[in-house]
Design goal:
The protein is an alpha/beta fold. The chain has 3 domains: about 130 residues, 3-Layer(aba) Sandwich (Rossmann fold); about 230 residues, Alpha-Beta Horseshoe (pyruvate-formate lyase- activating enzyme); about 60 residues, Beta Barrel (OB fold (Dihydrolipoamide Acetyltransferase, E2P)). Helix content is about 35%, strand content about 20%. It has a 6-stranded parallel sheet, sandwiched between helices. α2 links the parallel β3 and β4. α9 runs parallel beside α10 and α13 packs parallel to α14. The longest helix has 24 residues. The N and C termini lie far apart (about 55 Å).
Length: about 450
């Protein structure tokens, strides 16, 4: 069989860590000669890498599967649908039973089997009724080094670990991904060297808990050491760390970020709540006192640090007093960036059948209230950056064709606001996508900023 005649589209849903897994599968398929394209209508196989973290993610995954199933009808080219990722890990039997359009499911430990699965489906001996199911217990890390194709990419996600050691009452990730497993440091460095050779200048490190990196392999938290070694790679100019925990923000990590010119002065630390009572019910290690102490420490050592967090509203038993406590603390802590989730009960978690579930309308009101509060805080903090100078990485050209869209050290890709960059008319030059340029911030909205090339 000539694999180059087989077109495959990969759809990555959910978080950045899922995107990395999709990139690993893409590399495997290309190495076997398959044509990986971005056009379902002209594909023989579609792979849907799903998220199953919360109810809305499950709904998105199912809707995507059904949308792709439409392409299998009639005389369309699409023949097979493969479902991978978190949803297939949690519900493989349900997927194959309730979604007969799906031909194969692979669990989170079986990305390496993608070529074998495609080959089996495309073989002359395969029968439509023969479904493929390859799902085993969560908890292995068979991560492959990605080899992204874009030669001038502005940033690249790098997964440094898999799974999670925490047992938050609302979270199904340990059920899906197993306990935390670190990638060997030399493996990460090798991937980073490849990415640097392709033109990527910014690395974004990701895991369920990046601050726990190295505990299993090296018997100590090793995120700071990893940052230091990655910064020695020629071509890498910025290293950003996402998804940390307050107890993992050590003095060593803060000092590495403070003194390493390639480390972004950026901390992404999901706290989930601001009431000690709810934090305890969530089975979190964080407390109001720890959060306050760590934020004060970061800001005293790195005054220009940008700090992002995530909170959850509507956790079972959350009273109006708890909610107001969260808001009061957010006013005090003044995070630069904030994301908010509405609690959804997930099967297998401690919070699934907890008493005192919050009505949906109350959850939505609290969700809206948090975002309105954060809008005000963000607007105040963003205004403080007017007249400052920073280096901006150019990601794309804005829709109007006049501005470029980019990010400084303070904006993580895909999650945060953008910096709109204008080139003065008398300079008459084009900026390179992936290039990094000095910019003066001259204006802002509540979130986004506008800057001019210096």
């Amino acid at each position: 069989m000539n694999n180059s005649n087989i077109n495959i589209t990969i759809i990555a849903l959910g978080c950045s860590k899922n995107l990395v897994d999709a990139e690993c599968m893409s590399k495997l398929l290309k190495d076997e000669g398959y044509s990986v394209i971005n056009d379902i209508n002209d594909s023989d196989v579609v792979i849907i890498n799903t998220c199953g973290f919360i109810e809305s993610a499950k709904t998105e995954a199912i809707d995507t599967i059904l949308d792709c199933a439409d392409y299998k009808e009639g005389d369309g080219r699409l023949k097979y649908i493969i479902v991978t990722g978190c949803l297939s890990q949690r519900y493989p039997g349900d997927i194959l039973k309730d979604l007969p359009e799906v031909d194969a499911v692979l669990g989170t430990s079986h990305y390496g089997d993608i070529c074998k699965t495609v080959s089996e489906l495309m073989s002359a001996e395969h029968k439509a009724e023969d479904k493929i199911c390859n799902v085993s217990e969560a908890g292995s890390l068979d991560h492959l080094i990605t080899d992204k194709d874009v030669s001038t990419g502005s940033y690249a996600w790098v997964k440094i670990g898999e799974g999670c050691l925490h047992r938050c009452a609302f979270c199904a990730i340990p059920l899906i991904r197993g306990n935390f497993i670190s990638r060997p440091m030399e493996d990460i460095i090798k991937e980073a060297e490849i990415l640097a050779s392709k033109g990527y200048k910014e690395l974004v490190l990701a895991a369920q808990d990046t601050t726990n990196y190295g505990v299993d392999l090296y018997k100590k938290r090793s995120t700071a050491e990893l940052i230091h070694k990655l910064s020695e790679i020629d071509g890498i100019e910025l290293i950003r760390v996402m998804y940390g925990y307050m107890d993992g923000i050590t003095d060593e990590l803060i000092e590495e970020v403070r003194t390493n010119p390639k480390a972004a002065h950026y901390f992404d630390i999901p706290i989930q709540h601001g009431s000690n009572r709810i934090l305890k019910a969530m089975n979190r290690f964080d407390t109001e006192e720890l959060i306050t102490k760590k934020l004060e420490l970061i800001r005293s050592k790195i005054p220009d640090a940008i700090i992002r967090t995530t909170v959850m509203v509507g956790f079972p038993g959350e009273t109006e007093e708890d909610y107001e406590r969260l808001k009061d603390n957010l006013r005090r802590w003044r995070f630069d960036r904030l994301g908010c989730f509405i609690f959804s009960p997930e099967e297998g978690t401690k919070a699934y059948d907890m008493p005192d579930q919050i009505p949906d309308n109350v959850k939505k009101e609290r969700y809206d209230g948090i975002y309105e509060l954060q809008r005000q805080i963000s607007a105040e903090l963003t205004k403080e950056r007017i007249s400052t100078e920073t280096v901006v990485t150019i990601d794309s050209i804005a829709e109007d064709g006049i501005f470029y869209k980019g990010r400084s050290y303070g904006e993580a890709p895909e999650d945060d606001p953008v910096v709109y960059v204008l080139v003065p008319e008398d300079e008459n030059r084009e900026l390179r996508i992936g290039g990094r340029y000095p910019v003066r911030i001259v204006d802002c909205s509540d979130y986004d900023m506008t800057g001019v090339i210096i």
